Amino acid sequence: MPELVVDFITSLDGYASAEGWPGWWGLEGPEYLAWLGENPEGDYLVLMGATTYRLMHGFTKVGEPGTDVLGGMSKVVFSSTLTEPLEWDNSTLVAGDAVEAVRRMKETGDRSMRTLGSLSLCRSLLAAGLVDRFRVVMFPVITGATGAERIYDGYPDVALDMTDSRTFDGRIQLVEYAPRVLDGPPGTS
């Protein structure tokens, strides 16, 4: 069965972005960019929502470092607001229920998938029990005053069993987990 990886880039305090800060909080380093260039899971189908699609396509248009590889990847965009044809190459639009579509893709497909941003999509997929691997790359900043898009708001309780970790450039931390959605805090059910 194909794997589904949820993939987040975050500040230490759990924000996906911050007002006035550059991409990657201006801290992308050569080791991290080299890892991105190696294109881990490059053959995976990339899943995203409309907001992330617009943002990332815009980044590729202006040459944001590390985003050039996204153009050649196959992408599925879940949206009720976008229309065909999508401007970004290798992008397919799905207007229906994302959870059901991904469930079918896992059951009948042969290609593993990974998300890109798309906070509400990831939340829905995790709550539905479809996520096999949860990867977070944490940048060493706290953006409490300017942080935007709190990643974990609205999530169910989730137990995370660590499967991998790595440090890039002596400061950027990658952690990977196998998630288990819980009915509530341990010992309460």
From TrEMBL:
Origin, by domain of life? Bacteria
Pfam families of this UniProt entry?
Answer: RibD_C
Show the GO MF annotations: 5-amino-6-(5-phosphoribosylamino)uracil reductase activity
Give GO BP annotations, semicolon-separated.
riboflavin biosynthetic process
Q: Which residues form the Bacterial bifunctional deaminase-reductase C-terminal domain?
A: 2-173
* PANTHER family linked: BIFUNCTIONAL DEAMINASE-REDUCTASE DOMAIN PROTEIN, DIHYDROFOLATE REDUCTASE FAMILY PROTEIN (AFU_ORTHOLOGUE AFUA_8G06820)
- Please identify the protein, giving its name as recorded: Deaminase
Q: Which organism is it from?
A: Nocardioides iriomotensis
